[in-house]
Amino acid sequence: MVSVAARDQPLPILLICKYLLSLVLGLGLLLTLVQSEFELQACLRALRIYSLAVVGVQVALQRVVPEASALHQGGGSGEGYGSAGFGKGKARNKAGKLVDFFLVVILSIFSVCLTHVVTVLYGAYLIENIEETFTFSILVASLAFVRPLVTLGPGALGVIIERASFEEEPELQCLSALVGAWFGALPIPLDWDTPWQVWPLTCCIGAVIGEVGASAYLLSKLYKVVDLKKNNVSKDCQELKSLYDNCFNQWYSEKFLRGVLDDSTCEPVFKQYQSCVQEALKKLKIEIPKIEEIPSEEKPKE
């Protein structure tokens, strides 16, 4: 039997809104780059704003619904800094959250610096084009590293290694952004002489396309799960309602028409069964008639 708790219903809706917002932000950024005719400074400014917006959406979701970190399809057992805490007691829990918050901030800054260093090691200029390289580092770190830290907390790396599943949201988004940025570097050496081939636009566009693809995949996957859950609940509701109706009609006809069953034995047993069924139907939000609401002189139609 499938039971649906009322407090769990808004969570998939929030995740759907989050993935839709990620799609809108990504597609909006790509459209902005095209409309600016890939003017470098305008593109860099748009990329930095997009990076902050992506992290801001994740932080807002984590603050509003800390349980959302456990809703990624396939499970997910990590906790974000919004729900973390050390020890017991309110004071220690607040202190633990504060420590986790600062750890997440420090690790996020470190991830940006590390991405910048790795990018330089892979061929970017150390001094020349430093603004372009740093903007690329902010974008990749925001998409691939900062969001898992916000979602899973300071121990995000350990959780990801332990799970080793790219079906989870943090791992999938991280991988798609990195792979997209990697493939985005392929057009740079080509002699097409187009404005979007300027460093780091192709890599940034590739990372954003990877993010959009991951969001679309997660959205479709979540929609399938929610739709399947609704179908299962609807099927269980119909079966349970039919079972209750059959049992009620049989008991009613036995008691009021045939009179072959002793009320002293029939009624307590059925009332106990009815109580269990009513409780289950109440969880599924189905209204059912009560025995007390049916007058004793009323007879079912033949």
From TrEMBL:
- Protein's UniProt name: Putative phosphatidylinositol-glycan biosynthesis class F protein
Q: Of which family is this protein a member?
A: Belongs to the TRIAP1/MDM35 family.
The listed locations are: Endoplasmic reticulum membrane
Taxonomic superkingdom: Eukaryota
InterPro entries per the UniProt record, alphabetical = GPI_biosynthesis_protein_Pig-F, MDM35_apoptosis
Determine if Transport is one of this entry's keywords: no
Q: Which UniProt keywords apply?
A: Disulfide bond, Endoplasmic reticulum, GPI-anchor biosynthesis, Membrane, Transmembrane, Transmembrane helix
Q: Name one Pfam family in it.
A: UPF0203
Instruction: Cite the GO molecular-function annotations of the record.
Output: phosphatidic acid transfer activity
Its predominant location is endoplasmic reticulum
